[in-house]
Design a protein that fits this description.
This protein is α+β, with helices and mostly antiparallel strands. Helix content is 49%, strand content 10%.
Length: 672
């Protein structure tokens, strides 16, 4: 890859791993570690641990482990070099990259697109703020409540009329401008793609500009073309996995655990204006599972701020599936019918905030909409409302949930639950047949294929930009693409990220039964956290477990924990990272005594067996050598008594432990 090892190490040591991971999941200090919910798998109790001193993380639930580079690779699905470069930029570290070949060329092309997009965003933003030809655009934005502060926060811009203002102003290669979707080839050369439009820049979660959205301004030009124009997909911009304003909202999402999903750019801005800066929007495409997976990294409560009723049965089934798979909660904001968040932010900000506070579960919202469509004051309307609500309830996969809502519908429509249950059972059966048929026909569902190319996209009733869609093309458990050319120390050589990497399940290093194994883990953890205190007190002979012995040897032969991890095999590296994120429950003396006692007991059992074998074989010479060791070991073990499990051992016990460590280290052959 061409990045020198010392530069990689400098980036790793210069990165604040707590700050980095804190952008994706809230962390709180517990003792010397930071803990929180794992961003790699759904969980309700925090099993994710971060060792800030060593710059390492470990999940005791899914065994995800690594360093800042490993974390960024796994969470953002980027290559090793991309992760190093991004962390270097954050930390202010200059790295050298002498790599050549196709990988370097591809990264250079992508970087050229990023540069062209950033220069274009800066050009359009400056044009809006300072130039006379943007006066009507500024007036329009003010009429929508978008004042100077919002314009600067979202880096809004103005694309002037005319053919090639951007081409002449931005010093970038024409190929890069065209590759980023910023210019098109006209009869007389390259022409700007966006002309006479307010510009809404679109950024990745890390703040890199990747695309533009443009809106015509009333009264400017001839008003030709679509009202909205969006960048095409490019090597740096994929609509199905990009969310507008996530770069601005993700901190608030992490802090609150909640995200608001809108249809349009001005809707997002409307939520920011009323103090709800945790809103995002899809970028001219349906809401897909890729979006849900992205959002689940930051928050588990997802509020849809658009009309979710018209999405249909196929979309509803996917919402319930995604809720279960990603352990998220999907709700719907209680917006007034016909009102969008952008307008409510100006006309009735309190009502907009109340819509979020009063968000209903997805099923509750749809049942309420079905009932509200009828006048429940007359029997015929109540019957129609009950029938319509039953069809909606049937979409939910949980029988207990369905029955709870059936009882509510029965109360509100003055119906007999016993009469509604057969209707619900029939509706559930019909839905299963429908879902089975849709699955066999390629998963298109009731609404057919997706205009965006995502299987099973479902049209909604709004503007179409935030509707619900089917699964993405990549299998749900497929890991991020691996960079086959990564150097040996990539992620210290152990599995980046969490489960689902396609490799065999990792050996569990959390559940240990034997006292010796437990003591061995504690001893290794202390050797990591307090190496000066433990260096002279441990020996590889104390570790009966082969994995623990290899881990101890890796620590003993390395200059630092990071060196040990870098040169260890995957299993040892994972154990060392796990232990770096573990706090031993007892002190050094107790750990050494417990480990020595367990190892000595094993040695005594072995010697007693050897004595019996020698007696059976009549091997008196061997008996003379090993038989005296049995009573000596028993006497030493008697000194231990009950000390070692928790109480601080007295001096006599510590001295006995030191003698036994010396003996265990000096043993040779089967006789010891």
């Amino acid at each position: 890859m061409g990045i020198p090892d010392e530069d990689v190490a400098l980036v790793r040591s210069s990165t604040d791993i707590v700050a980095l991971i804190g952008e994706y999941t809230p962390l709180k200090r517990v003792g010397r570690r930071f803990v929180g919910l794992c961003p790699f798998h759904a969980e309700k109790s925090g099993s994710f641990s971060v060792n800030a001193e060593e710059g390492l993380y470990y999940c005791f639930g899914c065994q995800a482990s690594g360093d800042p580079i490993t974390f960024l690779r796994a969470i953002e699905a980027c290559t090793f070099v991309e992760a190093v470069e991004r962390l270097a930029a954050k930390a202010g570290v200059t790295i050298r990259n002498d790599s050549e070949g196709p990988d370097r060329e591809a990264r250079d092309r992508r970087q050229a697109l990023y540069d062209a997009m950033e220069k274009s965003v800066a050009f359009y933003h400056d044009r809006l703020l300072k130039h006379e030809d943007a006066a009507r655009a500024r007036q329009y934005l003010r009429s929508r409540g978008l004042e100077s502060e919002i314009v600067r926060q979202f880096r809004l811009g103005w694309a002037p009329e005319g053919g090639n203002n951007l081409v002449r102003a931005v010093k970038a290669l024409p190929n890069s401008l065209a590759g980023a979707g910023l210019v098109v080839q006209g009869n007389y050369g390259p022409r700007d793609s966006f002309r006479g439009r307010v510009i809404f820049p679109i950024f990745q979660a890390d703040g890199k500009a990747v695309a533009l959205g443009g809106r015509l301004v009333p009264g400017v030009g001839d008003g030709q073309g679509p009202k909205y124009r969006n960048s095409p997909e490019t090597p740096i911009y994929q609509k199905r996995s990009t969310l507008y304003a996530l770069n601005l909202s993700r901190q608030a999402i992490v802090q609150t655990g909640e995200v608001i999903v809108c249809e349009g750019y001005t809707d997002v801005i409307g939520f920011f204006r009323v103090g709800l800066g945790r809103a995002v929007a899809t970028c001219g495409t349906a809401l897909t599972e890729d979006h849900f997976k992205l959002l689940a990294r930051f928050g588990r409560r997802i509020i849809l701020a658009f009309d979710a009723d018209g999405a249909g049965q196929s979309a509803a089934a996917r919402v319930y599936e995604w809720e279960k798979r990603h352990e998220i909660e999907v709700l719907v904001a209680d917006l007034p019918k016909g009102e969008d968040p952008g307008d409510l932010a100006s006309d009735d900000p309190d009502r907009l905030r109340a819509a979020v506070e009063g968000a209903k579960t997805y099923l509750e919202f749809r049942v309420k909409r079905a009932l509200d469509a009828e006048d429940l004051r007359n029997p015929e309307a109540r019957a129609r409302a009950a029938e319509r609500a039953i069809q909606v309830i049937a979409e939910h996969p949980n029988e207990l949930v369905r029955d709870q809502y059936l009882m509510q519908v029965a109360d509100l429509t003055r119906s007999d639950p016993g009469q509604l249950r057969p209707q619900l059972a029939a509706a559930v059966a019909r839905q299963r047949v429908s879902n089975s048929s849709a699955s066999k026909s390629g998963g298109k569902g009731a609404s057919g294929g997706s205009a965006s190319g995502t299987p099973g996209a479902v049209a909604g009733t709004g503007s179409g930009s935030a509707n619900l869609a089917g699964r993405s093309g990549r299998p749900e458990d497929e890991p991020p693409p691996r960079d086959e050319d990564a150097p040996p120390d990539e992620g210290y050589g152990y599995r980046p990220g969490g489960p689902g990497s396609g490799s065999a399940a990792p050996r569990s290093t959390t559940l240990r039964v034997s006292p010796g194994l437990r003591a061995g883990r504690d001893a290794l953890a202390l050797a990591i956290h307090e190496p000066a205190d433990m260096a002279s007190r441990l020996d590889e002979a104390l570790f009966a477990d082969p994995l623990q012995r290899r881990a101890f040897k890796a620590l003993a032969s390395a200059g630092s924990l990071h060196d040990a991890i870098s040169h260890a095999d995957d299993e040892v590296a994972r154990l060392l990272v796990e232990l770096a994120n573990s706090d031993p429950e007892i002190g050094a003396d107790q750990v050494v005594v417990a480990l020595v006692r367990a190892t000595t007991q094993d040695a005594l059992t072995e010697l007693e067996a050897q004595v019996r074998q020698a007696q059976t074989a009549g091997d008196n010479a061997r008996l003379v050598r090993i038989a005296p060791l049995v009573p000596w070991l028993k006497a030493e073990l008697e000194v231990f008594g009950e000390v070692g499990a928790g109480n601080h051992p007295p001096r006599a016990v510590i001295e006995a432990a030191d003698r036994l460590v010396a003996w265990l280290a000096s043993r040779g052959g089967e006789d010891g």
